[in-house]
Amino acid sequence: xxxxxxxxxxxxxxxxxxxxxxxxxxxxxxxxxxxxxxxxxxxxxxxxxxxxxxxxxxxxxxxxxxxxxxxxxxxxxxxxxxxxxxxxxxxxxxxxxxxxxxxxxxxxxxxxxxxxxxxxxxxxxxxxxxxxxxxxxxxxxxxxxxxxxx
Length: 150
Fold this sequence. Notes:
Layout lengths: L8 H4 L2 H20 L6 H11 L4 E2 H8 L3 H13 L3 E5 L7 E5 L1 H21 L5 H17 L5
Helix pairs in contact: 2-6, 3-6, 4-5
């Protein structure tokens, strides 16, 4: 097995490498912690978005999450098959589908959010609370105010 020291000091300090390794670790933790909820981390992201907003179109959800429309349709198909969301034609524009989280979706979201919190806590356990908060704040600042900030 390769150790971090085998990579050399230059690669180990590259931001791309550091962020990717952290994301891979978090994805693995999410897979473990979310197993009982019946959804994955991408599906959790969709449910979190839908729960925080008035019902909107699947296109709006795709734009907000930064995924292409085809991927969003596939995600919603899976969530709809699990009875976690419903799509219905918009009363104002029948060509547009409005997506809503169901009561089952809200219950699953609550369970999955707790599991996701546990995964994040486990990843950040090597940091103190102040450093974990600082890391979130710094990443948020990069994502909101960076050169491609949205």
